[in-house]
Amino acid sequence: MLFNSAHYLLFFLPFIFIFYFLLRRFTDSDGKIILILAGLLFYGWWNINYTPLIVFSIFFNYLLFKKIISSKNKSKKKFILLFTIFCNVFYLGIFKYTDFIIQNLNYFLDLKIKLFNLPFPLAMSFFTFQTIAFLVDAYDDEIKNINFKKYSLFIIFFPQLIAGPIVKYNNMMSQFDTIENKNINLNNILLGLTIIAIGLFKKVIIADNLSTYASPIFFAADQSMSLSFLEAWSGVLCYTFQLYFDFSGYSDMAVGLGYMFGIKLPINFNSPFKSTNVAEFWRSWHITLGIFIRNYVYYPISIFFTRVAIAKKRNAISNYLLTLIIPTLITYLLLGLWHGSGINFILFGALHGIYII
To answer: For the chain, which residues score pLDDT lower than 50?
Structure first.
């Protein structure tokens, strides 16, 4: 189910919105169960056969979260955290990178392993990253003992389930329990509908129309057809803006939907193509992913190599290499690989790492 589809805008959203606030207004219920069920329905609409994947992830991570916060032994607590992060990354990697690994093994080792052709479950990257951030915050004692209902809603809240933004537990979940959000707020509805309208315009009017120009040119290039200079560049630029307006439009709709329920989600794009350098671009493009990568990927890698530099007592050039250049390259290689399983994505990550350096 897409945010811009008729059955979502005309049926799903109005029904969930009205039922949620009626339940909160006239009963003692906090409405979280309604939003959890709505999230499951929203996710299952894509393919109900893959709904058990996100349900399993929720149960598995909640159980290990309880182990993390209940453990008094620091070493054991750290082991559980690392084990849980590994399981989540491995779970993601099975669906996203299995065929990519097999293709490269077949190519370099002249093997003939059959591809699994596994479909990539909807939103798996986003709920995996959000889960990892949650577990690290729990390890750092930023999240106390919470119930299963709150954790489930944090993962499966449908406005930001598919494409983010990636949010921290404490920033989002505290908003559900405020008195102000118990009743319908007209200002929130008007603001939310305005932001949704902007997102819809970006997605439907701009991005979808640009795709009618970009797709044929990319198809022609894929078929090794000859393209003129203008044809090639028009295809590249149309696709560039198609990608931006599609993604930022979807993110705007997520923010607008959050406002309708009284939840303020962070913005994900801040005019990235106005940036004057690559570092500024990455601070404006997919902002919540950039924050996640910085906090949970770059910083740990940088700390590790800094400790290596201190232990080895390297000279200034070696220290610079270990504490800045290598962590930056590794981070952007992983960022490129996260965007897709292919050599082009690895090159994309490597180039941006070099640009940043």
So the answer is: none
